[in-house]
Amino acid sequence: MPANGTPLRVFLTKPCGVCAGVRRAAETVERALAVYGPPVYVRHEIIHDRHVVDGLRARGAVFVDDLGEVPDGALVVFGAHGVAEDIEHDCERRGHDVVDATCPLVLKLHKEARRFAERGYDVALIGRPGDDEVEGIASRIPGRVHVVSQVADVGRLEVADPARVACIMQTTLGGIDTQDIVAALKHRFPRLAAPDGDACSAVHDRQKAALKLARRVEAVFVVGTSTSTTTRRLMEIVAATGVPTRLVESAAALDATALDGLATLGLAAGPSTPDALIEAVMTRLKALRAVEIDVLDGPEEHVRFRLPSRLRHAGERPEAAGSGYPGPGGGAPLGRGTVLSQDR
């Protein structure tokens, strides 16, 4: 059993933590608060991370589940997962000033789903019923759409033409979550169609990296909050390998006993976990033990999404202080690379 003075080898997954769409959503609310001042109303939590949401709430963001809670004409921000079309229409009727922080890759799915429906396809939408993203995609399909959440749903599908079935997947599901459903769809519908071009791989890449990590270490800490579906799912996937797994929601939750007997430890985080939380946990580990940190090989993420144009052109972007989120001035950038614009 390692003594407390023995360096602890800490392995970090790659990629780890916040994705481009989540970063953009949180920065959108921060920027809206800076430009327009509080209150800024946000439909549902902008992202599924308690630290980010609490920080934004402290600065004047008001998170609502019902537009009836918002004064007519007030500024409303849509979250990263998007909203159904009827919510957009309701905002128009109420005269709300809308800033859309929907992830551009989710908006791409909206267009792909509509394109399939307009060409006469039944659309099998793999996702969790009731999720904002699923409702948003389904509402934009002017035809036959079937939400598929498990393999058993595939056998119950009633389609107009088995040769014209398309498959769309919710972005917050990874390949591990959907592979059996996709296989069942392909078996029943051999000519199954899928969107062209790039899809969101953030969840899949983090799940795959976490499984790789679990094979290298004696225990895994999944950094994030229980409010995040993707964080909870990452926990389940790692725990299923048999390696001891712990959810770490704050650096303060760790003490020396958490590291007793460990020579190696892995850190993983889902796409809703801010850089600041991961860095705080690493700082805490260094305070508890001498550590050696290694980053496992994995895909580089170079995409960064621009803020909505009305916010980009509203003057100098101020320093984002107080949210604990790695937005402008709040931590390491996502990385250099392609900048994709989404001017909604």
Could you provide a short overview of the structure?
The protein is an alpha/beta fold.
Rounded to the nearest angstrom, the radius of gyration is 21 Å
| Strand segment count | 14
Number of helices: 11
Give the helix level as a range of percent.
Answer: 25-40%
Give the CATH class of the largest domain: Alpha Beta
* Order of helical and strand elements: EHEHEEHEHEHEHEHHEHEEHEEHE
Number of domains: 3
First-last Cα distance = 56 Å
Q: Residue ranges: pLDDT <50 for 5 or more in a row?
A: 316-343
Major sheet size, sense and barrel closure: 5 strands, parallel
In the CATH hierarchy, the architecture of the largest domain is 3-Layer(aba) Sandwich
Assembly state of the chains shown: single chain
CATH topology assignment of the largest domain: Rossmann fold
Order of strands across the widest beta sheet?
10-9-11-1-12
Write down the overall geometry: flat
Share of residues in strands: 15-25%
Kindly name the structural category: alpha/beta
Average pLDDT score: 88
Describe the protein in words.
- The chain has about 350 residues and is of the alpha/beta class.
- The chain has three domains: about 10-15 and about 200-295, 4-hydroxy-3-methylbut-2-enyl diphosphate reductase, catalytic domain (Cobalt-precorrin-4 Transmethylase, domain 1); about 20-105 and about 305-330, Rossmann fold (3-Layer(aba) Sandwich); about 105-190, Cobalt-precorrin-4 Transmethylase, domain 1 (3-Layer(aba) Sandwich), CATH 3.40.1010.
- It is built from eleven helices and 14 strands.
- The strands form four sheets. It has a five-stranded parallel sheet, with helices on both faces. Strands 3-2-4-5 form a four-stranded parallel sheet. A three-stranded parallel sheet has the order 7-6-8, with helices on both faces.
- Mean pLDDT is about 90; it is low at about 315-344.
